[in-house]
Each structure stands twice: as structure tokens, then as C-alpha cells.
Fold this protein.
Amino acid sequence: MRLVFVFACALAAPLALVCACGESRRPIGEECLRDEDCLSNFCAARACVSAPSLVTGASGSPDDEEPLIPTGDGASSGTDGGDPDGA
């Protein structure tokens, strides 16, 4: 009887390892809780969905912006006339 138990364990251990290393992520349409649960890496409304499409040029170009670079000749933001030591 002991030999049967050892033999069963010897067969069950590799089978358990193969099942543990298999892919556990779900295809599109299956239920999910997190993004990592899906093959597509996107879970929405508790279902695996395909990745959202990338939209380029859907809106106008952003306005040109002027960088705020100090020129050195302007007064500092302090009330003491710009002296950093306060003297």
C-alpha cells in the first residue's frame, strides 16, 4: 500500500508543477478583476478587453508657449529690493 502512495505522489508532483507554470491569464471577453488577469493587459467593467486604439491628430495642436526664463534685470520676488542676505 505504501508503494502505491509513493507512486501516486511521484506522478502528482510533476503534474502539479506543469499546471502551476501554465498560462493563467484570460482571453478577451473572459471575467477579470485586474489588468494583469488578461492577455491584453486591459480589464474594463470586469471583462478582458482589447487594448484601446491610439488616436493621433484627433485634436488641434497645442498653443505655443513662452518659457518663463528670468532675465536677471528684473526685481526679485522679495520685498527687500532683491538682496538675498536681507542686509
